[in-house]
Amino acid sequence: MSNNTIKSILFDFDGTLIDSLQLWEEIDEKFLGALDIPVPDRLKDEIEGLSFRQTAVYFKDRFNLLMSEDEIVETWIGLAKEAYENDVKLLPGVVEILNEIKRKKIDLILLTANRCTLVDSTLERLGLSSYFTEKHYDSYKEREETFVSLIKNRNLEPENYILVDDALTSLKAAKKVGIRTAWILIGKTDKNFYITQENSFVDTVVSNSLTELIEMI
What are phi and psi of 9, to 5 degrees? Predict the structure, then answer.
């Protein structure tokens, strides 16, 4: 049953709209491998939901890198650029759910930790740019303040929003503000591990297709 109190939906990008989680695991392996550094177990969980800048700080500190944070970020973007421009695909049900959101005249806001360099060209290639009323990049989505700031100047209550994201850190921060949450597991390479994690702050779990969100909106 649809929910007519939803006025705005915050959509993540990587792992939520596009199937890119495996790509970033491979980039981490290439980046650290070039430095003869083994990839730690569950590294992806430790950096999940962090912005490029935050992840670069984490890598620099954890692996004692001599590179600057900017150099680290630019290296990652260089490794990812070709795949984003040519290869990464949409997750199942993306076009259908975006069309349903548009049909219901719900505002659609992109909220991503990724850089506009990679995001905008990919949205254009996949024909998704026109769906979004706003786009926010380099977002610190593990912070409650990010969501408070985003909705501060709008004539809406937190419960009028949904955050759709694959990162539990982001969903937890949004839920603390009062925003409804949908957890996307479609692109996870190890769904069984993730589903065992504490997720009482998740309202809906989406496992196979974004069209599973229809009942929520």
Answer: -120, 130
SS3 at position 18:
strand
CA distance 162 to 8: 7
Q: Which of 44, 194, 19 is nearest to 94 (CA)?
A: 19
Rounded to two decimals, the pTM is 0.89
Radius of gyration of the chain (CA): 17
Strand-pairing partners, residue 8, are 107, 161
What is the secondary structure of 106-170 as a DSSP string?
-EEEEE-SS-HHHHHHHHHHHT-GGG-SEEE-S--TTSHHHHHHHHHTSS--GGGEEEEES-HHH
Distance of alpha carbon 5 from alpha carbon 10, whole angstroms: 15
Over the stretch 116-161, which tens digit does the pLDDT of each residue have? 999 999 999 999 999 999 999 999 999 999 999 999 888 899 999 9
Instruction: Give CA torsion, residues 99, 100, 104, 107, to 10 deg.
Output: -60
Q: How far apart are CA 137 and CA 116, in angstroms?
A: 6
